[in-house]
Amino acid sequence: MPGDSSAPRDLHKTTIAAESDSPSRRRGEPDVNVLVIAWYPHEPDRVGELAVIPATGVTQVIGRGDEDDGRLRFFRARPGRLEPTEPLASPALSRRQLEVRVDTDGMHVRRVGQCPMRVNGVATDEAVVQPADTLRFRQELLLLCTRRAARIPPLRHLEPDKVGPFGKPDALGILGESPAAWALRDQISFAAQSSAHVLVLGETGTGKELAARAVHKLSSRAGRPLVARNAATIPPGLVDAELFGNVRNYPNPGMAERRGLIGQADGGFLFLDEIGELPAELQAHLLRVLDSGGEYQRLGESSSQRSDLRLIAATNRDPTELKHDLLARLTVSVEVPPLAERLEDIPLLVEHLVLRAAEMSPKVAARFIERGAGGTPRVRAATRLIDELMRRKYEENTRGLEAILWAAMAGSEGDTVEWSERPTDRPAARSEPPASRSPRNTEPPEGEIRAALAQAEGNVARAAKALGLTSRYALYRLMQKLGIDRGGG
User: Fold this and answer.
1) Full domain range(s) for residue 461
2) Confidence band (pLDDT; 50, 70, 90) for 3?
3) Model pLDDT, residue 432
């Protein structure tokens, strides 16, 4: 591959240091080409580390050892800083295993070492790869190509003592080292510190309840109750009784007195999942109690009660489908990103989910667990499994990932979780390295967004798909940033 591979190794380090000291640190850094370690059995704690590919046309090298030959360095991106790590040490990797160069048409990769390479599961020696493509070297190493900010912005709201070890769940139960995962943590922290009612948005299976419980845990009301209910399970005729309660013998003789969900949540939080499933006329029943006085009436009672509660409402619907005056009272939003926006977190989630399965069902999953250094439990998983999982489409996000993992464990004969194809699996639309298709990695211009919304007649999900964005929530963020409404105006 052409290119100058004699550039000094410190050039890369100097570039990162210069970027970190610039004003972009405060504004959010621009996206750069990155290779993320997605699986590395020789040193499993390094999953999630990244190497930044300079956009200079200079050929860089990935391989074993630390020779001064234009070798890429790996870093751990933590809020506000990049922590350099040791060179790769797997003896199965060549010292010059992969050459990488960024050009105008994408990232060029060429295998120069002995370990064979597969790009998106297809054997090849050379390819032009795009974001979301994977590079697999037998069982030794799996890399994810992506574009993202190299440095995670400093935290604005989350306290430092709530930041967990690299690659592990934090004190809130949130796992992930992607920019999207860190943005979620900061959103949750802001929501917790506010006194406002909260709307949690996210696709099915992304972990909206986990986010709601994290808001409760971080708030000044952490010692008070979190009363949770799925709004979709409340029968329409019983909404008032479930929410507000009733006095004794009302509406029928012999009925016991009930406080209702709102009374139970006094001083704490009421979490109503799937709030969008309540018809608009029933959503209106919540409006009065959400105002500053917290006033409501139990069924059969003439006097008013007061409840000092904070509501956390969650929905996977377009938020504008909520009754407008209810939406106006949910003044703080938390957006839980889909897996498509945090692909580099999938390997970390895989290990977490298998470890959890081993705790809950040891007879089924414990055989896939080994003890690493210091007795730390580690998951034995085939590199191909992680490769395939990172190239799936997940309509139910983490919930869908967990379902595939259970099927993989059921189909694995030895002590390693192996990949097993299922008829219901939906692979991503990438099969050949040069023709990789991936989510759009640049923001569409404002005019294009307005045109797409107009063409879709205000349907945000359809417009997001037409624009090549990962989800409708990505489009919501752009609309809010640019001040665009659903009609494109």
Assistant:
1) 446-482
2) very low
3) 53
**Cα-to-chain-centroid distance, residue 288:** 34
Backbone φ and ψ of 242, nearest 5°: -70, -45
In terms of domains, do 350 and 254 share one?
Answer: no
For residues 303 and 278, membership in a common domain is answered with yes
pLDDT tens digits along 160-169:
888 999 999 9
Cα 440 to Cα 433: distance, rounded to the nearest angstrom: 17
How remote is the C-alpha of 251 from its chain's centroid? 46
470-476-478 Cα angle (round to 5): 85
Distance CA 33, CA 18 (A): 17
pLDDT of 254 > 80? The answer is: no
How would you classify the pairing of strands 75-78 and 269-273?
Answer: unpaired
Average pLDDT over residues 95-112: 94
List the one residue out of 193, 145, 475 whose CA is nearest residue 338: 475
Distance CA(384)–CA(436), nearest Å, equals: 18
Q: Is 269 helix (H, G, I), strand (E, B) or coil?
A: strand
Contacts of 436 by beta carbon, 8 Å cutoff, 6+ apart: 119, 120, 129, 130, 132, 133, 430
Q: What is the pLDDT of residues 340-389, one digit of tens each?
A: 999 999 999 999 999 999 999 999 999 999 988 788 899 999 999 999 99
pLDDT in tens, 379-424: 999 999 999 999 999 989 999 999 999 999 999 999 999 998 765 5
Q: Are 88 and 400 in contact (CB under 8 A)?
A: no
Residue 185: inside a domain: no
Residue 315's nearest CA partner among 453, 460, 211 is 211
pTM of the full predicted structure?
Answer: 0.84
One-letter identity of residue 232: A
Q: What is the C-alpha to C-alpha distance for residues 396 and 446, in angstroms, rounded to an integer?
A: 30
Query: Does 18 have pLDDT greater than 70?
Result: no
CA-to-CA distance for 284 and 301, rounded, in angstroms?
20
- Among the three residues 330, 352, 381, which one is the final residue of a domain in this structure? 330
Cα separation, 298 vs 217, whole angstroms: 29
Give the three-class secondary structure for 190.
helix
Number of structural domains found in the chain:
3
User: Please, what's the b/e burial string for 382-398 (b: 16 or more CB within 10 A of its CB; e: otherwise)?
Assistant: bbbbbbbbbbbebeebb
User: What is the C-alpha to C-alpha distance for residues 426 and 400, in angstroms, rounded to an integer?
Assistant: 11
Which of 358, 357, 350 lies closest to 385, judged by CA? 350
User: Lowest-confidence range among 16-20, 91-95, 148-152?
Assistant: 16-20
CA distance 322 to 273: 13
Residue 78, classed as helix, strand or coil, is strand
143 and 221 share one domain? no
